[in-house]
Amino acid sequence: MTRLPAHYDHVGSFLRPKYLLDAREQKAQGTISAEQLRLVEDKAIAEIVKFQEDVGLKSITDGEFRRTYFHIDFLEQIGGVKTDIPVTIIRPDGTQELAPPVMRVIDKVRHVKDIQLADFQYLKSQVSAGNTPKVTIPSPTMLHFRGGRAGISREAYPELDPAFYDDVAKAYGDELRSLAAAGCTYVQMDDTNLAYLCDEKMREAARQRGDDPNELPHRYAAFINKVVAQKPAGMLLGMHLCRGNFKSTHAASGNYEPVAEALLKEMNLDAYFMEYDDDRSGDFKPLRFLPKGKTVVLGLVTTKFGAMESKDDLKRRIDEAARYAPMDQLALSPQCGFSSTVHGNDIAVEAQRDKLRLVVETAREVWGD
């Protein structure tokens, strides 16, 4: 297994600066070109790289500044995939919820282009020696969970197993190989589906789509392992689990117990970023399934709201987690990115810096990195 750059990390997305949001709007209105927008994105990414390095982070992302959504922008560039753009729903109490987009497989899945290559090459050019550029991509399970069997063409895939899973894994493998050839050594897959399977209402929705929520985690473990089997040598491959993060809201709750064994014991991943910022995530007992050689990054610091956690509380919770998994196999991070979609969370720009510094300082005091 490949080790994380440090015992502190982060999930990857950041609030977009206003000038970048303005440029995206100008591009949508046709007043600037895609090339002009990319130059603005380059400027914003150079600034967010410096921001991350200034707070002491060792893994550095591009803030997902070239994306609208953490998943759609990537998935819609895979051959055979069509995505329906999500809409914002206003709940009866006035709060907002992002209706999940539906990813539909309309043809054989295939890798038709290097999706992240140019973005990684620019990121790498901005990251200082000694730090590690990290690429974030959506988990391949996103192509199955939301639509289920009904979301995958029966003409292309009369049977899902093994053809569908093999084709998706091959497409992901091709993408990982293109990144590795450019020098990428760290990729994080963002997955909401396994965390959703901890929530009874989401489990019932899976049943309504014809899936068994008790069987799905094990099927997804085998699915992820098909991708891991194609991972280039020397690349760290991790997974971030999320229960929803649109505009500081969440979509699911529940202890990790229903998925813990499949997630931690069966998947051949190097690291797991697991949300533990509030009671929605339950206790640390599921960490008992963590085998040697893997790392769990404890997401103890919320990105949803600006209230600051205390070092003492973070250290206490790390100690609690260490009752179930070896301390050296644990690390610390925020529970999610600050802006999983272009809309951003309900948190001040300055709070990003304060929370990341808290993560870095606390982890250094605990582990000595």
Automatic annotation (TrEMBL):
One Gene Ontology term of the molecular function aspect: 5-methyltetrahydropteroyltriglutamate-homocysteine S-methyltransferase activity
Keywords of this entry: Methyltransferase, Transferase
InterPro entries the record matches: Met_Synth_C/arc, UROD/MetE-like_sf
Listed GO biological process terms: methionine biosynthetic process; methylation
Record-annotated Cobalamin-independent methionine synthase MetE C-terminal/archaeal domain positions: 11-363
CDD domains reported in the protein's UniProt record: CIMS_C_terminal_like
Listed name of the protein: 5-methyltetrahydropteroyltriglutamate--homocysteine S-methyltransferase
Pfam families the record matches: Meth_synt_2 (PF01717)
Superkingdom of source: Bacteria
